[in-house]
Design goal:
Layout: E1 5-13, E2 16-21, E3 24-31, H1 32-42, E4 47-51, H2 63-72, E5 77-80, H3 86-95, E6 99-102, H4 104-108, H5 111-120, E7 125-134, E8 137-142, E9 147-152, H6 153-162, E10 167-172, H7 184-193, E11 198-201, H8 207-215, E12 221-224, H9 226-229, H10 235-244
Parallel strand pairs: 1-4, 1-12, 4-5, 5-6, 6-7, 7-10, 10-11, 11-12
Antiparallel strand pairs: 1-2, 2-3, 7-8, 8-9
Length: 251
Amino acid sequence: MVAKRIIPCLDVRDGHVVKGINFEGLREVGDAVEMGVRYGEEGADELVYLDISASQEERRTFVELVSRIALRLNIPFTVGGGIRTVDDAARLLDAGADKITVNSAALADPALISRIAGRYGSQFVVCAIDAKRIDGVWRATTHGGTRLTDRELYSWASEVEERGAGEILFTSMDHDGTKAGYACEVYARLADRLRIPLIASGGAGSAEDIAEVLTTGKADAALAASIFHFGEIPIPELKRMLRSRNINVRI
């Protein structure tokens, strides 16, 4: 059985990790490199770094930070934000990122997923989907959740898989930063229709929430930010609890 993964997410703006609620009211919580090193030492399986202002400000994720992270980190890490071309992805992978994630640019040009996967392989491509529930329909958003699209979550996720993405990182914008739990019914429905791994993001407020999304929600990995950044749930303690629930995690 493949082990479930615990993945801290570090939203980065100008080289610092920030956190807010529903992508608003952002405040700095630490240095991107030093926090990543600490999480690696604590037993995180992977990290995700998202340059959350890159797409909105129409600039590329800065490669220099990725290089510094790669020099210090001993676990895999994924980088996203402002990746619009295969060359953008290449610069990040060459700088040391293990995987890249695309979101806004993939919605604007879905063939971008195929082009990156075709050159580097699906295992290097994570497609992030940020969605909101509007009038009963989950709709994908772009530019850090600030713009709605006409793409429906489930059909877009299936298309992403067919185009060659190796994983999907789905964030419920309605749950992000609220600590009210994950949208487990949505994750379970996604998992049932996908063949590729699904990373759950948005709403973790307790170890119970993470256990639920990895079981009831059928997610392959749980991504969280606030509860790790502010020391509410130490990763070693979380993993011991998950093991006690017969959830397969690496310790």
